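Z., the sequence and structure:
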Amino acid sequence: MAETVLDIAGVTFRRGQTQILHGIDLRIAAGEHWVLIGPNGAGKSTLLSFASAQVFPTSGTVDVLGQRMGRVELAALRRLIGHVNPRHPLRSNLSVTEVVLTGLTGTIERPMRWEPSAEGLAKAEARIAEVGLTARADAGWKVLSQGERGRALVARSLISDPQLLLFDEPTTGLDVAAREQLLETIDDLSVRAPELATVLVTHHLEEIPETTSHAALISDGRLTAAGPIAEVLTSEQVSAAFDHPIEVGFADRRWSARTVRGARSVTV
């Protein structure tokens, strides 16, 4: 496994006449757990698309798992990257086991005439157990709760033993209990796979997993701060990123954000 799993250097990105990112530099090492935070439209999703080897920069370089974008066969690279997206576009009513198995094929639906090996089935069963869904292994996608879907997608991403795991707003649509279950599942990864690097995008400081080690603040397409999480998530730096006075709190290994008045919570 490469010591540096993601190296973004001097990256800009334009869509048409609009410049989305301006000179981004970010390096993520094996075993680090990052959170990307910033206002809507700041460029978080675009940055995540580089990490998932889906989008090429307009200028600059992106090295993923030691392979430079533009010089590597993308399909092979993507199989080493897990991606948990709550907007998973599955249309059929696959069971939890079948959904997890699609992590081996890198497809949304189960390929026609494809049958998993005994080893593949055993790995699917193990990953499903790790996320606490054994009792729901045969349940169809359409009857799963949003929380169960989220945990199934984590298992799907883990079945191919990725070196980099990406979470794109994974708690979207979850109630408090389901959110906490999913965050516990994410936190458990640091024990189960200590060399696995993760990157999570969220708008809410309250939804940062306890094991998150690093943070990056992005505003108007620029990284305003990046590094160890306690050095980045300060009231001053978060307020500057969101152009709003925000008081950042940290208690019992969890983060929070409120307006300076303390009158109401602020979505970040």
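DSSP finds eight helices and twelve strands in the chain. Confidence is low (pLDDT under 50) at residues 263-268.

Let me know what you think.
H.
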